[in-house]
Amino acid sequence: MRTSAQSSDSGDLPRERLERLGPRALSDSELVSLLLRSGGRGRGADVVARRLLGEIGGLAAAATEEVASLQGLVGLGPAGSASLVAAFEIGRRLATRRLEPGTRIQGPADVHRHFFERLRDCPHEQFLALLVDGRHRVMSEVLVSQGTLTASLVHPREVFRAAIRRSAAALVLVHNHPSGDPAPSGEDRQVTERLHEAGEVIGIRVLDHVIVAEHGFHSFREGGDL
């Protein structure tokens, strides 16, 4: 027999939908209900989750609340409030995880998370390089130039100088698009190709070039351009 925690569109419980479809398929209220597990006072967790988000103004607003302010809202108790606050904090830490020296870069998503908050609202383009060792662990970060990205502004000499001085094995190029669109321009592609070729000659590989923007990121490596 189904309970009141049914999903209105499929008849599945949120946990069943999670297992069958994955977390991205669940609504905000379904995800919250899984954290709460029980609504208490004879109410299902889904009911409490929907009322909570409706009363507080959505998931983003709920993420700014503290445990004390959540308690008592639509009957939410100490355990449920603590679970929500802990989940929101985990999300924040993952979203803003920085690449400290010694951290191994797993992929372009790591680079995007590291630079996003800093570069998302920057009014001008910044071109940087992450220097890494032979195991792709971060050594240091270098600001190469600021301003519109051009081949003359981003010269291989400026990009590889610090890498040679630090004996870096490779580097990851990074720059932002103030427009918010991460799609690479023709100039982006020319600069990337030029630096990649220079790195092959010098013996310091260009592992990737990641464009960071408000609406996502572009990886030249994942896009097949390197």
Write a brief structural summary:
The protein is α+β, with helices and mostly antiparallel strands and 226 residues long. It is built from nine helices and five strands; from the N terminus they run αααααααββαβαββ. It has helices at 14-21, 28-36, 45-56, 59-62, 67-70, 78-95, 108-119, 156-165, 186-202; strands at 126-132, 138-146, 170-176, 205-213, 216-219.
Your description of this structure?
The protein contains nine helices and five strands. The chain starts with 13 loop residues before the first helix and ends in a 7-residue tail after the last strand. It has helices spanning 14-21, 28-36, 45-56, 59-62, 67-70, 78-95, 108-119, 156-165, 186-202; strands at 126-132, 138-146, 170-176, 205-213, 216-219. Strands 2-1-3-4-5 form a five-stranded mixed β-sheet, with helices on both faces. Mean pLDDT is 86; it is low at 1-9. With 226 residues, the chain is an alpha+beta fold. It has two domains: 14-95; 108-219, 3-Layer(aba) Sandwich (Cytidine Deaminase, domain 2), CATH 3.40.140. The protein is elongated.
